[in-house]
Inverse folding.
């Protein structure tokens, strides 16, 4: 039972973790990215289409990442250079993406429900040699795909880029004080758009992994608010990426618990378990303000 | 959130009609492209859409039925936006109000007017609370209202869905819903043979009232003042936190009222997921109306017509309903791009 829980968590984690990293980076650059949800949907669909067309799961994920970068960049362009309000544009973008996904489903596959291509080559699973000898975890983690394993280097790379590279420094500067950064000669819009492309690529990767590798089908509602949950994780720890990722992982475990125990414990109020991430972030923000030291 | 969406008053007087219509026109264009992709003629599509929305008493009734809740939620959104508060949570107030009206309407058996009043009162009260909490958190503690209202919508929807399935489930229905309300609590019909009820009159009256309240009253002036510059309003001695709470309470109250009227007027019960994002779509309505209360009516009519005629167009022309969604999203995005609609938001 515990094994099942860990396995479900590990499999579901990329969908939230990559999105959280993307949303975190964008937030550090000064953009609240509400469009994460729509980007997951977009990535899930393009990834699935490409995986089917290219007959390769890896190819599908690659195409989704490219498309995500492009769309994430375009979204940021609207809220930066075109000065659209980021909240409204983000919400509108998500509606637009859901509509487009529904239209593509109907037009290309004549289905309203879901699109399940058959026979494309699945993502190869592999284990890390030194983990195989670990008595308990070894068997669970024996065959995970590239995207699951990639979470660890991705988070480490994001932390490193943020704190150790000049691009990361510029990113943080633009987020901390756009006007001063402008005066120092930084292209505020340009940097935000670059980060937007990264956030889009990561969210699309999350969506593509969800549709191609986890579920094996695409439906317009499959993201199920993961973009908003990732945003909640970012708000949980707006200044510590690893903490935000930890929050995301806790949300994943809660989700996995709910999925695992739904049938076994019919009295479990599923709807209440599902709102926990949202409730948690509201409470966390409230307590962080309550315990704030400086006078208002 | 320091960005304000309130229109600049100086600009407000002379904004051009073209700029005001830009979001709608772009949405028509994007919708046309989507329709062309489905292999249909956009002209035929829009002609059919117009016919299905406005030709015949029953079609007009259906359109106005879809328009009514959008007027409510559009005005609810607008009040908060005009105060510079980013209330994304009208959806939560709407859901809470719709559910509460269904419970009050189905569990008591009183004379019609009494029970309708009770149900609407209860609906507006829970809507008010759903607005007050994030308003208070923003005004007193500085908690970002975008996060609390956006996330709060999911919390309200989840709690209500749980309450329905755990305690108020109507036996023998296909979807998760409460029992039907008592027949005497259904709102009186406005056009016989349609679902249109007197709630349309209430919505129109409320819109006019809000218009004059914003324009002529002291508290309405304070709301506009805080929306256009909170610091200036503060320097003038206006209680900014008070106005923030006030606008959120009013916004939530109207959102709850919208939900109550939707239950007693349209569905007759609360169906989980049956509100079709009416609270959320109030944002698009308010933006299309450029936050002007009177303009909410035509703006809600446009989106109401799309919602009412969309399903029949899907049936007759084989254009999926998603085209309507694409147009809604486009309207929201374009409505806040200054180069297209003129500068009416400022940082």
């Amino acid at each position: 039972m515990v094994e099942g829980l860990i396995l479900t968590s590990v499999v579901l984690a990329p969908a939230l973790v990559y999105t959280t990293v993307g949303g975190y980076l964008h937030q550090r650059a000064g953009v609240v990215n509400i469009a994460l949800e729509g980007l997951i949907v977009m990535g899930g669909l393009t990834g699935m289409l490409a995986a089917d067309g290219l007959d390769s799961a890896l190819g599908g994920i690659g195409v989704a990442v490219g498309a995500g970068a492009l769309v994430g960049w375009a979204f940021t362009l609207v809220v930066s250079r075109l000065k659209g309000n980021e909240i409204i544009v983000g919400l509108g973008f998500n509606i637009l993406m859901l509509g487009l996904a529904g239209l593509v489903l109907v037009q290309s596959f004549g289905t309203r429900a879901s699109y399940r291509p058959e026979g494309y080559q699945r993502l190869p699973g592999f284990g890390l040699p030194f983990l195989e000898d670990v008595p308990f975890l070894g068997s669970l983690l024996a065959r995970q795909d590239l995207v699951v394993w990639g979470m660890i280097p991705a988070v480490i790379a994001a932390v490193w880029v943020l704190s150790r590279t000049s691009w990361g420094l510029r990113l943080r500067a633009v987020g901390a004080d756009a006007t001063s950064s402008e005066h120092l000669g930084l292209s505020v819009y340009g940097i935000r758009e670059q980060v937007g492309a990264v956030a889009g690529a990561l969210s699309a990767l999350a969506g593509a992994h969800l549709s191609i590798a986890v579920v094996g089908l695409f439906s317009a509602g499959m993201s199920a608010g993961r973009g908003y949950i990732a945003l909640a994780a970012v708000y949980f720890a707006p200044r510590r990426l690893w903490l935000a990722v930890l929050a995301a992982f806790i949300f994943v475990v809660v989700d996995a618990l709910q999925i695992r125990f739904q049938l076994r414990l019919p009295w479990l109020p599923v709807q209440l378990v599902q709102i926990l991430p949202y409730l948690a972030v509201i409470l966390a923000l409230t307590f962080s303000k309550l315990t704030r030291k400086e006078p208002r | 959130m320091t960005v304000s969406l309130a229109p600049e008053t100086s600009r407000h007087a002379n904004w051009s009609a073209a700029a005001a219509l830009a979001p709608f026109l772009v949405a028509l264009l994007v919708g046309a492209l989507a329709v062309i992709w489905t292999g249909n003629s956009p002209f035929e599509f829009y002609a059919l859409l117009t016919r299905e929305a406005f030709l015949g008493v029953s079609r007009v009734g259906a359109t106005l039925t879809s328009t009514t809740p959008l007027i409510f939620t559009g005005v609810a959104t607008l009040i908060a936006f005009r105060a510079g508060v980013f209330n994304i949570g009208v959806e939560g107030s709407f859901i809470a109000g719709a559910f509460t009206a269904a419970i009050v309407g189905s569990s008591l058996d009183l004379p019609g007017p009494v029970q309708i009043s009770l149900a609407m009162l209860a609906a507006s009260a829970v809507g008010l609370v759903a607005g007050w909490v994030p308003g208070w958190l923003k005004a007193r503690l500085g908690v970002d209202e975008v996060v609390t209202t956006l996330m709060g919508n999911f919390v309200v929807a989840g709690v209500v869905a749980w309450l329905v399935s755990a305690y108020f489930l109507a036996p023998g229905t296909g979807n998760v819903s409460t029992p039907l309300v008592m027949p005497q609590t259904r709102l009186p019909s406005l056009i016989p043979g349609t679902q249109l009820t007197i709630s349309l009159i209430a919505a129109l009256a409320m819109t006019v009232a809000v218009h004059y309240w914003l324009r002529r009253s002291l508290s309405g002036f304070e709301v506009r003042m805080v929306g256009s510059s909170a610091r200036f309003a503060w320097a003038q001695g206006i209680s900014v936190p008070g106005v923030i709470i006030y606008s959120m309470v009013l916004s939530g109250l109207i959102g709850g009222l919208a939900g109550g009227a939707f239950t007693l007027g349209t569905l007759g019960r609360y169906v989980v997921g049956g509100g079709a994002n009416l609270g959320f779509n109030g944002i698009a309505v308010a933006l299309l109306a450029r936050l002007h209360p009177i303009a909410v009516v035509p703006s809600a009519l446009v989106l109401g017509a799309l919602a009412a005629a969309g399903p029949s167009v899907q049936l007759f022309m084989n254009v999926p309903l998603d085209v309507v969604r694409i147009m809604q999203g486009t309207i929201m995005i374009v409505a806040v791009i200054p180069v297209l609609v003129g500068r009416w938001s400022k940082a």
